[in-house]
Amino acid sequence: MDEDKVEPMMLGSIASQYYLSYMTVSMFGSNIGPDTSLEVFWHILSAASEFDELPVRHIEVTAFISEKGTF
Questions:
Q1: pTM score of the predicted model
Q2: Integer Cα distance of 63 and 16 in angstroms
Q3: What digits encode the pLDDT tens for the residues 8-37?
């Protein structure tokens, strides 16, 4: 690598491409590996802070409560 050259790192490129925070990408990088099961992968993905900004529709809350019995 040339000392005068700057190149993006893989996780930085992913963060930039998908508008993810550095905290989310850091969490992905430290928790997702080649042996990560699909169930664990979805759990990690759903923990991303970017999902905090998405509104939940009233009908989805009602369906969840009727299925689980509580929120």
A1: 0.64
A2: 35
A3: 899 999 999 999 999 999 999 999 999 999
